[in-house]
């Protein structure tokens, strides 16, 4: 065997043993990979929740900060920041978020090509602590939203159909305070 043949065999083994989806794919790290986050609240539908969203830095770490009062008055109950994304590999297992917060439960909401109405999404919860941590949230844990027209949504979503990801404070009266320093696919 000549050197070129050995190299091709070796390269082939690497490619077939390590498909791209076994590696984490960064969605946003506030450095060289970023998406445009848009904050909004239930005020878009008559609610009274208030959202504050900005970028901060602490001890050399950049992160997004969302805080505000979540109120269920006037049929409201959410604040969030959301970004459009495009995922081109369906073999990822879930999302990984680097976060800290005030100990409350928060959600990741995924909107897809099938969630055409504004109140339709797939969601999964996670809890924060006051320490930075990476939390893995498998796609299998996301449940479709309930309510009007949710019966038309499939129980599971197509990963390549994901259009946006939102970090959401939702569903009860509380003061939201969450930081996010990274979001990845795994």
Can you characterise this structure?
This protein is mostly beta strands and about 190 residues long. The protein has one domain (about 20-185): Jelly Rolls, CATH 2.60.120. It is built from 1 helix and 12 strands, in the order αββββββββββββ. It has one helix at about 5-15; strands at about 25-30, 35-40, 50-60, 60-70, 80-85, 95-100, 105-110, 120-125, 135-140, 145, 160-170, 175-185.
The radius of gyration computed from the alpha-carbon positions, rounded to a whole number of angstroms, is 19 Å
Shape: globular
Largest sheet: 6 strands, antiparallel
Task: Work out the helicity level.
Answer: under 10%
Q: How many individual β-strands?
A: 12
Give the helix/strand class: mainly beta
What's the CATH class label?
A: Mainly Beta
Q: Termini separation (Å)?
A: 38 Å
N-to-C SSE series?
HEEEEEEEEEEEE
Low-confidence stretches: 10-21
**Count of distinct structural domains:** 1
Q: What is the CATH architecture annotation?
A: Sandwich
- The CATH superfamily appears as Galactose-binding lectin
Helix segment count?
A: 1
- Strand % is over 45%
* CATH-defined topology: Jelly Rolls
Mean pLDDT: 91
Instruction: Identify the quaternary structure here.
Output: single chain
List the defining traits of the structure above.
186 residues; 6-stranded antiparallel sheet; 1 helix; globular
SSE order and pairing:
Elements (H helix, E strand, L loop, with lengths): L2 H15 L7 E4 L8 E5 L10 E7 L2 E10 L7 E7 L9 E8 L3 E8 L9 E6 L5 E6 L4 E2 L17 E9 L3 E12 L1
Antiparallel strand pairs: 1-12, 2-5, 3-4, 4-12, 5-11, 6-9, 6-12, 7-8, 7-11, 8-10
